[in-house]
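Reposting from the mailing list since nobody answered there.

I have sequence plus structure tokens for a pair of proteins and want to know whether others read the tokens the same way I do. The first protein:
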Amino acid sequence: MHVVLNDWALALNNRHSINVAYIDYSEAFDTAVQTAAEVNRSVILLSSLGISGNLMKWTPSCITDRIQCIIEWEHLARELLN
């Protein structure tokens, strides 16, 4: 991140414009594993927005084949204390 911020600062100091896109994948992890159709829809949507390259290659692996686990902290604490 430090390298990216440095590049942005240099570009701005040299009066170059920069474009930055923030991709928030947090909701991708709030649901069950994505189906192939849902992943394809996501990829098509991102492609239509001009997203490509490494980010596009990384996206499907980010939202598929994930193991989901829910921990109830109070229950876990009781188990550990007993």
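The second protein, same order (residues first, tokens after):
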Amino acid sequence: MLPGCRARCFHRGCWRHSTNSTSAVIAATKELAEAVPVDRGAMVLDVGSGLGGPSRYLAATYGCHVTGIDLNSSFVEAARYLAERAGFVDQVAYECAEALCPSLR
């Protein structure tokens, strides 16, 4: 666990001031980024990145570089497409990989 990070109650806490899942995910992403903190140019690994919403949010808000990994190749393909459409191809990258993959260390 990261110092100062409240990861154990992270998902429950993100609904505190949210009325839908999108705002809850943004609130959770923001809370984690502020706890770490994420600085401009930082390298972030998004494990279980799904469609890449949090990755794009981090890149847009904090100016960091994000590598997202997911086991679902359809999600990876969709995340790449959405990143391209949003103009974040220089800041985010997505791979179909396992979090414990030796190449990610």
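Reply #1 (J.P.):
I read it the same way you do. Confidence is low (pLDDT under 50) at residues 1-13.
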